[in-house]
Specification:
300 residues; alpha/beta; 5-stranded mixed β-sheet
């Protein structure tokens, strides 16, 4: 009977876990829908802003002399990486995939990397393994606004202009769909038209009308326009990356919790079958003991 009681306790425990994972799945699904709407709503603006910027930078006389954020350093001595992960776990391989991709990227640099981490999981891993984390940001809201992202972008821009690093990359997870999320590492600074967008945004922009190559006369001048637009565009790119990462995180957590719930229900079925078998075995043993006792009494 002790075995039967142990199985009943396990069934009760697994049922409680299944209820928790089901609730977490529903919460993650709700957050995922809101995050997905937000990231899809900002993609057109981000793509058009990048188109306008690259057109301005390509104007006659454009280049580093227009703005410091366009300046390519002759020698890359240090690289800044903005690593975007989650604050919490229970999201499958979401954090592991982007951290693994970032580690592979760092190994291929050949020079020091300085990390700005967004999220506890990436921060804890990088500090634990001895990487140089110069800034950290945690506890972002589920639906961040541009003001929530501004301190991250300003830290990146100020350190780049001071020369703390010669280039900056964003490391985040692009949202493809509910099932698929893609670890992405792309250059943020110095800004250039080549390689500036992720594969997802490249695909999005490929469906837009072909950009004209005509040269326009701007008022005010491209230098003045870029002085205002470049910092804001940099903030926008960081903001878009964080929105992509949040949508990917909630999707990964919803899928992970759904798998956990299904596995728990399957385990409950197996334990229930074991419970009935153990109970039947215990009842059979009791009946045999009763029959043996009755036969002993009859002989005596």
């Amino acid at each position: 009977m002790a075995n039967v009681r142990e199985i009943k306790r396990r069934i009760r425990s697994v049922k409680n876990i299944a209820q928790v994972t089901k609730a977490m799945q529903m919460v993650a699904a709700s957050k995922m829908r809101r995050a997905q709407e937000q990231v899809l709503a900002t993609r057109p603006y981000s793509a058009k802003a990048w188109e306008v910027l690259t057109h301005l930078a390509a104007q006659r006389g454009g280049g580093p002399e227009l703005h410091s954020l366009l300046t390519r350093r002759a020698e890359i001595q240090a690289t800044g990486i903005v690593l975007i992960t989650s604050d919490r776990g229970l999201s499958g391989a979401y954090n592991a995939n982007i951290i693994r991709a970032t580690l592979q990227f760092i190994r291929g640099l050949g020079h020091p990397a300085r990390l700005i981490t967004v999220g506890r999981r990436g921060r804890d891993f990088m500090i634990r393994h001895g990487f140089n984390v110069i800034a950290e940001f945690t506890d972002l809201p589920d639906r961040p606004g541009l003001l929530d992202i501004t301190p991250i972008a300003r830290t990146v821009i100020d350190d780049f202009l001071k020369g703390d690093y010669d280039e900056v990359y964003l490391a985040y997870t692009s949202f493809i769909n509910t099932i698929t999320q893609e670890p992405t590492i792309r250059r943020l600074l110095p800004i250039s038209a080549e390689g500036g967008l992720s594969r997802v945004m490249d695909q999005y922009m490929s469906g837009l009308p072909v950009r004209t190559t005509a040269e326009y006369i701007y008022e005010p001048s491209p230098r003045v326009l870029l002085g205002v637009l470049l910092p804001r565009l940099t903030e926008l790119q960081v903001y878009q990356a964080i929105l992509e990462a949040l949508a990917s995180e909630h999707s990964a957590r919803m899928v992970a919790m759904r798998s956990a719930t299904e596995n728990a229900n399957e385990l409950i079925g197996d334990l229930t079958l074991s419970y009935y078998r153990a109970r039947q075995e215990a009842i059979t043993k009791e009946m045999l003991d009763i029959a043996g006792g009755a036969e002993a009494l009859a002989r005596s």
